[in-house]
Amino acid sequence: MSDVEVRQLRYFVAVAEELHFGRAAERLGMAQPPLSRAIRELERQLGVRLFERTTRQVNLTAAGEVLLRDARTALEAVTAATRRAREAGRTSPRLRIALKADIDGGLLPQILSAYNADGASSAPELVLGGFGEQSQALREGRADVGLVLCPFDDRGLDSEPLLSEPVLVALAAADPLAARTTLRLDDLAGRETTGGAPADRGRPVEHRARRDAPRPASNLSEIFSLVETGSIVFFAPASVAQRYPRPEIAYRPVTDVPDSVLAVAWPRDARSPAVAAFVRAACAVAAAAQDALAAHHGPSGGRAVVGDGPQPSWS
Asked: What is the CATH number of the domain that holds 16?
């Protein structure tokens, strides 16, 4: 059996995600007949059927499901290797930090200050993205380290928790639920949160969305506009609610939703001194925040957390 080429994996993943040869061909910028021939050739090379095809639909076989999982990982690794090689060849090194704007628990300025004070030679550069996009940016080599909300897709990544905050639900001030002081998830039945997810299931978790799914609101301005009109509700860490008080929005605690945990994450195989310096700075700032909260509220009043996880030890 000859080796499978990266091009063939890209073709296969496009068809597997679209489950439609026409849409996959359009996505790849090619005609459908050569794409169909390429998939048949891949099946011949592997000696297995990857798709069950009828005149009405295309479905993955068991072998196709296995290949899709591993092909995504392989393509992410190839993309990341290319980007990291280019980055390593730059004359002015950078530390690219993936995050969602305003979802940093208020820690980012102090982290950057501590990072710069550590004598780091790589200039920090923010890689802003939507909710749940940070871990993919790390795997694809678009970022070197990230601030992420848990839970997240941690394939190939290590992480360290930094800050734990209560979760509030943002809803229209005119919503009858705004009259209550606290809520439970059952109270939110029938309402939707970002991406159309049922609100009574809690915060939407990171997932790979279908390419033909409607684009969800990706920034806080869009989200808050939808909340104000009663179109959606939105689960937010307490720090976001503190930063964005709005007269048309009410924030209420949801007692059966776990705390929001902010973590610092990095590729498991990273060996960059700049990444190590950033993780050290993030953990030191979070520990200082914990001490400050404990001094103000007492030993049980702090919400910052620094775990005992795999902090990078290289230098």
From this structure: 1.10.10.10
The predicted pLDDT at position 208 comes to 44
| pLDDT tens-digit series, residues 139-183 | 989 999 999 998 899 989 999 999 998 999 999 999 999 999 999
What are the tokens at 290?
């914990």
Residue 2: pLDDT band (50, 70, 90) is low
Distance CA 179, CA 227 (A): 16
Instruction: Tell me the CATH number at 220.
Output: 3.40.190.10
Q: Are residues 11 and 123 in the same domain?
A: no
CA angle at residue 185 from 182 to 188, to 5 degrees? 90
CA distances from 220 to 102, 103, 105, 174, 232 (A): 9, 10, 15, 20, 13
Q: 138-166: b or e for each residue (b if 16 or more CB lie within 10 Å)?
A: bbbbbbbbbbbbbebbbeebbbbbbbbbb
Q: Which of 85, 112, 137 is the last residue of a domain?
A: 85
CA dihedral sign of residues 117, 313, 302, 146: positive
